[in-house]
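Morning!

This is the sequence you dropped in the shared folder:
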Amino acid sequence: MATWSASSPTASPCSSRRRTKAPARRPSSESPPPRKMKSMAEIMAKSVPVVEQEEEEDEDSYSDVTCEKCGSGEGDDELLLCDKCDRGFHMKCLRPIVVRVPIGPWLCVDCSDQRPVRRLSQKKILHFFRIEKQTHRTDKLELSQETRKRRRSCSLTVKKRRRKLLPLVPSEDPDRRLAQMGTLATALTALGIKYSDGLNYVPGMAPRSANQSKFEKGGMQVLSKEDLETLEQCQSMYRRGECPPLVVVFDPLEGYTVEADGPIKDLTFIAEYTGDVDYLKNREKDDCDSIMTLLLSEDPSKTLVICPDKFGNISRFINGINNHNPFAKKKQNCKCVRYSINGECRVLLVATRDISKGERLYYDYNGYEHEYPTHHFL
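The structure's back. C-alpha cells below.
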C-alpha cells in the first residue's frame, strides 16, 4: 500500500494545477480608437425638460376627460376637474353655475360638504341670530298697530311726494318666523358663514376710516331722515326676531336661493348687504361669487367691496339675473342701492315691485360697473 511523503514530488494533489502568471498584453495596432464623448451642449439640445414631459403626460392623461353633465370634452378652458374624484364639469353645466375658475382646490357637489344640513332647534336659532329677549305681547301689538297706522297715513302721500322706504311686515305667527330664520341659519351653517347684521372691519383688510362716502366717484345719495328712521326700525325688529317673510331654499339648478313666504310691498326694505369690507385690489382674484361693490373711488386702489364669504345674512343668497336675457330681466323684483348713512357707504336691498308669496327674489348684479359676467346665469 502506497503512502504519501512530504518530501515526495507528488506530495500535493494540487501540484498539477499550479497557477502561473499571465503574460502582459502588448498594445496592438488593431485595437479600436478611443470613443469620442459628446459635449454637454449637444446632450442638452436633444434632451426634453422634465417639466415638459410632466405636462405632456398630464395632457395625455386628461385628454379624454368629458363633462359629466353634457358628455362633451370641448371647451378645455371651462372644464373643471374635481380634486377628489377627477371627474370633469363644464362651468356653465354646474348648478349653480360657476362664473370663473376657482382659485385653489375645487370639489364637485358630490364630493363637497355644501349640502343642506339638519334643521336647527329653536334654542339654537335664537342663539344663532342673537335674538334679544322679547317684551310683552302688548308692546308688540302696540308697535305693529303704530306701524300699520303709519303705513295707512303715508299711503296717500307716497304717490304725491317722494317715494319712501317701507318697513318690513313680518309674519304674524311666531312659529312661522322661527321656521323662516331656521332656513337662513341652515344655509349659512352649510356654507360655513357666520351671521352678521352689519359691516365687519377685520385687521389686514380695509379699515373703517376708508369707508367714507365723500370718496365716492361723482358723489353718493344720502339716505333721508325718514328712510333712516325706517331702517333703524327694521334693524330693531331684526334684533327681536321679527324678520321679513322670506325663506332660503336649495334648488338643484340655482343652489341656495330666497323665496317670499308672504306678500311684500313695493319699496319695502328687505335687508342690508353685510360682510367683510376689503379693498377691491385684494379681491380681484377671489373666487367668492357674491362680492358687492361698496365704494367706487376716484382712486381705483381705494375702491371697497363687501365680501360675504365668512360673515353674511340673507342678502348673500338672493340671486342675480342674466343681463343678456330679456326674459331673465323680467324676473328682477328688488335692487341694491348704495346710500350715504352718517357719512359711511351702505348697501340696502329694496323691493322694486309687489312680490307675491312663493316668488323668488332677484336683483341685478351689474347695478353699477356692468362688468360682472352674468351671461351664464339662469
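Headline: Confidence is low (pLDDT under 50) at residues 1-22, 136-143, 154-160.

More detail when I'm at my desk.
O.
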